[in-house]
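queue> holo job accepted (aspartic acid)
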Amino acid sequence: MCLGLLFICSFLAFTAAAQQKQKYVMVIHGGAGTILKKNMTPEKEQAYLGKLREALQAGYDQIKAGKPSLDAVQAAVLVMEDSPLFNAGKGAVFTHDGKNEMDAAIMDGKTLKAGSIAGVTTIRNPILAARAVMERSEHVMMIGRGAEGFAKEIGLQIVDPSYFYTPERWNGLQKALAEDSVKAVLDHGNKSSELKGTVNKDNKFGTVGAVALDQAGNLAAATSTGGMTNKKYGRVGDAPLIGAGTYANNATAGISCTGWGEFFIRSVVAYDISAMMEYQKLSLQEAAAKALAKMEKLGGDGGLVALDNKGNVTMPFNTAGMYRGTVTADGQIDVNIYR
Ligand code: ASP
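queue> job finished
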C-alpha cells in the first residue's frame, strides 16, 4: 500500500517536472527568407546560431531574475539590433536612396499598451524608442524626424546614420538596384512593373523579434527591422504596425512576424492569431497556421514566432528558412535556421 502510494507520488512529481520543462518562456526570430544551407559557410552559420543563443540568454536572464516580459523581449532584441548579422539596428538593409530607415514595435500583453516607431535613421536602438513611446508618451506610434526628436529629448543614444552601414547590406542594395534596372529596361519603363520592383523580397531576411512569458504570467512581444532592401517613398512594413507584425495579449498570445510586410499588413496576421484564439477558441498552433495560410494565399511569404499564456510555442514559416530559437523555464536553449 505504502509502496504503491510512493510510486504514484513519484510518478506525479516526474510528470509535473516534465511539464515544467516543456513550458517555454521565450521565443525569438532573426528573420525568414531564402536562407539555404548551400549558401552558408560553417562560420557564418555558427555566428548566427551563437547570436541567437546570446539573445535568448539575455532575455532568459531577465525572466529568471523575476523581471517583466517587456524587459526580456527588449534584452533579446537589443542583442540582435547591435549585431550586423540581422536586418535591425546595426545590420539594417538600405532603402533605394541608400539610407537605413528602421521600424520597431513593442507591446505589453497585460495592459495592451503598445509603442512603435517607423522610418527612423539615427536612433541606435529602435526598440528602446518604441518602448519609450509606450511608456513615456501618450501616443502609440511616432515616425521619422518627430520620433528621432522624441528619442533625443528623452536621452536615447543618437548616432550618425553611417553607424548603420555594413558592406553586406550595401552590396545587397547594389544587387537589387541592378535587378531593378534590368527589369525596367525589359519592361520598357512600364510604370506598374517598375513599382513592383520597389522592394527586394529575396534580400530582406534578418528582421528580429521576440515574445516572452514572465514569472507573473505576463506576455510581451517586440519586433525590430530595417524593412526591405530597396524600399522607396518612405515605405513602412508590418513590424511597427500593432496587430500586423507585432501583438501581445495575456488572454491569448504574443506574436512577432517576419516576411514580406505588405502581405502581413493586409492579413493583419498577428491580431488574426489572437482573435482566432479568443473568439474561436483555436489553439496557438492552429491559429498561427491558419493566419499564415491566409497570408500565403494572397501571395506573401515569411514566418512568425508566437507564445501563448500557457507557455506553448509555435514558429511556422513558408520560406526556406527562418533564424529562430526558444528557451524553456529551466533555461534550455534551442536554436535553428533551416526547415
Ligand atoms: N517584415 C519586414 C518588413 O516588411 C521585413 C522582414 O521581416 O524581413 O518590413
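queue> Residues 23-338 form a domain with the Glutamine Phosphoribosylpyrophosphate, subunit 1, domain 1 fold (CATH 3.60.20.30).
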